[in-house]
Amino acid sequence: MEDSNRFISLLSDYGFKITFADETNTLFLRKSLQALIQSPCEIKTIEFLRNEFPGITEDARGGLYDLFCQDEKGNSFIVEMQLGHYKHFIQRAKFYAFHRFNTLVERGKYKFDNLTPIYCIGFLAKNIFPESEQYYHFATLKNQIGEELDRQIVHVIVEIDKFDKGRTTIDSDLDKLIYIMKQSDTIQNSSQLPDFAEEDWIEQALKKVDKSKMTPEQRMFFEFAMAKKGSLLEMEEEENRIKEEETRKRVQEAESRTQEAESKRKEAESKRKEAESKRKEAESKRKEAESKRKEAESKKKAAESKLLTEKKQVAIKLKEKAMSVKDIAEVTGLSIPEIERL
Predict the structure, then answer these.
(1) What is the CB neighbour count within 10 angstroms for residue 92?
(2) In whole angstroms, how far apart are CA 115 and each of 9, 118, 144, 147?
(3) Number of domains in the chain
């Protein structure tokens, strides 16, 4: 289906570069930066700086800014566009700001006076501060009661998704900028343009992303950029699919190992129970044999006791008949002392 939207999104890589990073005309960038840092003073000139920086040491990490520039006063501006959700964005922003800070300190021969401000600006399509209702964050170093201690490094974060103002309720340049960034690709005709679209800086930016005003070369560049973005998205989706597949396999392997371990545990438990059952059975047999042995022993003792009693009775009768003790002993098998005690 043919795209009916008139303007290219300023949040896209192409839209961001052609509006913010246009070195031939910096009006939109200058007005945007002034609005973002809430400065009453006009930014007159902008110098674009190399947006790639090396590590401080041979083994240290370098980086790449989306846009890096400074104004006529030496204020540094690091501008980042983050479309996807990245929960560590503020950590990366601090890394960028501190790297610039170190560079300024080195240039000043490690003196900390006359250091110019560093503004680290982030446009975030997704929210990273869900606890805050604010869409615009201006952060400096403050103490526990909110008193500002230093603003040499300033972090400006714009959570675009939180911005919900309509075109008729906007009056500040900051809100105008955020509105255009968020809504540009939804505008289909001139009637949907806000009144402030006629302001020179906004008008200039919209002309740059107006598809109807593109030259063939610009159109081709835009199509190439979109194709590249599509390829990158496809590559990202494929990478995510591969990662998900690898994760799924790892989960399945882990579950298989768990099931195998559980099976072995159950088998070992079964063998343990079987061995315990056999042990109990053997113990039962042993007790039964011991019981029988004791019963036999008891019967034996009873029989011996009975026999002894009978012998003594016979011995008594023989003694009564005046048979000699020696003869009685031979007849009954009793000892002479035993017979004498009868």
Answers:
(1) 15
(2) 36, 9, 25, 21
(3) 1
For CA atoms 226, 227, 229, 233, the dihedral sign is positive
DSSP 42: P
40 located within any domain: yes
Per-residue pLDDT of 163-173, as tens digits, reads 999 988 998 99
Cα distance between residue 285 and residue 92, in whole Å: 76
Reading phi first (left if > 0) and then psi (alpha if -120 to 50, else beta), residue 301 is in alpha
| Both tokens assigned to 83 | 């479309």
Which residues have a Cβ under 8 Å from the Cβ of 143 and sit 6 or more positions away?
A: 149
What is the predicted pLDDT for the residue at 45?
96
Three-state SS for 235? helix
Give me the domain span that covers residue 151.
13-212
DSSP 166: -
CB crowding 35-60: b at 16 or more within 10 Å, else e = bbbeeeeebeebeebeeebeeeeeee
pLDDT value for 2: 47
Dump pLDDT digits (tens) for 245-294: 888 999 999 999 999 999 999 999 999 999 999 999 999 999 999 999 99
The answer to whether residue 250 sits within a structural domain is: no
Examine residue 6 and state whether it is found in any structural domain, yes or no: no
Structure token pair of residue 284: 């039962």
Asked whether 332 and 314 are in contact (CB, 8 A), the reply is yes
CB atoms closer than 10 angstroms to residue 193: 19
The shares of helix, strand and coil residues in the chain, as percent rounded to the nearest 5, are 55, 15, 30
Answer whether residue 260 is part of any domain: no
At residue 334, the 3 state secondary structure works out as coil
pLDDT tens for 99-129 read 999 988 887 677 788 889 999 999 999 899 9
Strand residue runs (E) in the chain: 46-48, 52-53, 63-64, 67-71, 76-82, 118-124, 136-142, 148-159
**Of 32, 59, 202, which is closest to residue 123 (Cα–Cα)?**
32
